[in-house]
């Protein structure tokens, strides 16, 4: 069963896309979110630093021709993509794989900094504070957002109130 927080993230994405949208999946992993997007938008850019993740995503999306796969860190998104309507991040590690390879607060903040120069579209992050790096990442993201004065929404699962439960952070530069 899909994590409830992912269903909430997908609902929020639905409110912000249409069939002509271009969306970046900054952490494609096993390709579940890429598939959700590819079924609904014109073009998806799927980034990951792991070859295994890119292959998994390509395999899951073999019937789709509206996905560009990029084996590179999301820090470099703007080297490949200039026109986009939104960027999504599902942070953490690739489920069923090496847990040592996971998103990191330094690279995540660098990417947010890059995207903040562009100020385009929506940004959605699913954050997992239940493991140490995820917790550090969650604090780093909140303090970065506050420093930048960005108005953002936090969405939590009301039935999972533990402080380590995953949650969503969302903002849209188009509606500032
Ligand atoms: C939680 S998984 C993503 C799950 C995926 N969205 C799905 O639907 O299956 C996080 C992914 O982020 C990737 N990752 C870690 N650091 C990255 C970076 N700097 N740039 C791009 N991807 C990164 C990991 O390799 C991992 O596959």
* Integer count of domains: 1
The strands making up the biggest β-sheet line up spatially as 3-2-1-4-5-7-6
Instruction: Please identify the top-level CATH class.
Output: Alpha Beta
Mean pLDDT: 94
Tally the beta strands: 7
Q: What's the Cα radius of gyration?
A: 15 Å
Report the helical percentage: 25-40%
Identify the CATH architecture: 3-Layer(aba) Sandwich
N-C termini distance: 35 Å
Query: Which molecules are bound besides the chains?
Result: S-adenosylmethionine
Form type? globular
The proportion of strand residues reads: 15-25%
* Helix/strand order: HEHEHEHEHEHEE
| Class computed from helices, strands and strand pairing | alpha/beta
Number of helical segments with 4 or more residues: 6
Quick one: CATH superfamily?
Vaccinia Virus protein VP39
Q: What composes the largest sheet? A: 7 strands, mixed
State the low-pLDDT regions, or none.
none
Task: Report what the structure shows.
The chain is an alpha/beta fold. The protein has helices at residues 4-14, 32-38, 51-60, 77-80, 105-118, 132-147, and strands at 22-25, 43-48, 67-71, 86-90, 122-127, 153-156, 167-172. A seven-stranded mixed beta sheet has the order 3-2-1-4-5-7-6, sandwiched between helices. Strand 4, helix 5 and strand 5 form a beta-alpha-beta unit. The model has no long low-confidence stretch (mean pLDDT 94).
Give a topology summary:
Elements: H1 4-14, E1 22-25, H2 32-38, E2 43-48, H3 51-60, E3 67-71, H4 77-80, E4 86-90, H5 105-118, E5 122-127, H6 132-147, E6 153-156, E7 167-172
Parallel strand pairs: 1-2, 1-4, 2-3, 4-5
Antiparallel strand pairs: 5-7, 6-7
Helix pairs in contact: 5-6
């Amino acid at each position: 069963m899909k994590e409830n927080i992912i269903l909430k993230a997908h609902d929020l994405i639905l409110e912000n896309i249409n069939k002509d949208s271009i969306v970046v999946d900054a952490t494609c992993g096993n390709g579940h979110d890429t598939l959700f997007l590819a079924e609904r938008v014109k073009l998806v850019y799927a980034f990951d630093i792991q070859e295994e993740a890119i292959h998994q995503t390509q395999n899951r999306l073999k019937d789709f021709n509206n996905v560009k796969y990029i084996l590179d860190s999301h820090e470099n998104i703007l080297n490949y993509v200039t026109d986009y309507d939104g960027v999504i991040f599902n942070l953490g590690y690739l489920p069923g794989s090496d847990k040592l390879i996971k998103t990191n607060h330094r690279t995540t903040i660098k990417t947010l900094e890059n995207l903040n120069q562009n100020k385009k579209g929506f940004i959605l992050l699913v954050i997992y504070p239940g493991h140490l790096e995820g917790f550090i990442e969650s604090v780093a993201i909140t303090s970065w957002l506050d420093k930048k004065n960005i108005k953002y929404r936090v969405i939590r699962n009301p039935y999972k109130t533990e402080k380590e439960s995953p949650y969503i952070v969302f903002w849209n530069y188009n509606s500032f």
